Amino acid sequence: MIAWSETDYQAYLARQGAPLPEALTEGRFLAKILGVAQRQGWLSYHTHNSRRSAPGFPDLVLCRPGELLCIEVKTAQGKLTLPQQTWLQMLERVGTPVEVAVWRPGEWPAILTRLTRPLG
């Protein structure tokens, strides 16, 4: 395991801030999101096999003190299904501190900014 200084880690994140390739698969994109989120102290939940779950629930739920993110992960061309739209709309109505979003590889710099934002 690599032990990063805070300076080295912030420099690494800055280098990672370039947009990701649009052809990135949803699984690889999700793995990149989870890697950053976990290093930033977010607890995460992702249903690995959703075939036996109710349709439409977001791909990823991230939580840390005072914050809850419900994220649908899509490829650049991925489209939301009607059940996904319904879940996201209902979760948006919960209000603060729940944030609901659809994240795509082209939004990587903004995603990094969101995941690395300081608490408080």
Compact overview of the structure:
This protein is of the alpha+beta class. It has helices at 6-16, 26-39, 82-92, 108-115, and strands at 43-45, 60-64, 67-73, 98-103.
What does this structure look like?
The chain is an alpha+beta fold. The chain has a single domain (9-115), classed as Trna Endonuclease, Chain: A, domain 1. The protein contains four helices and four strands, in the order ααβββαβα. Helix 3 (82-92) links the parallel strand 3 (67-73) and strand 4 (98-103). It is globular and about 45 Å long. It starts with 5 loop residues before the first helix and ends in a 5-residue tail after the last helix. The model has no long low-confidence stretch (mean pLDDT 88).
SSE order, as H and E? HHEEEHEH
Percent range for helical residues? 25-40%
- Please give the alpha-carbon distance between the first and last residues: 29 Å
Domain module count = 1
Name the CATH class. Answer: Alpha Beta
Overall spatial form? globular
Question: What is the CATH topology assignment?
Answer: Trna Endonuclease, Chain: A, domain 1
CATH architecture designation? 3-Layer(aba) Sandwich
> Averaged pLDDT, please?
88
Strand content: 15-25%
Low-confidence stretches: none
Beta strands, count: 4
Task: Give the number of helices.
Answer: 4
Largest sheet: 4 strands, mixed
Structural class: alpha+beta
- How much is the radius of gyration in Å? 15 Å
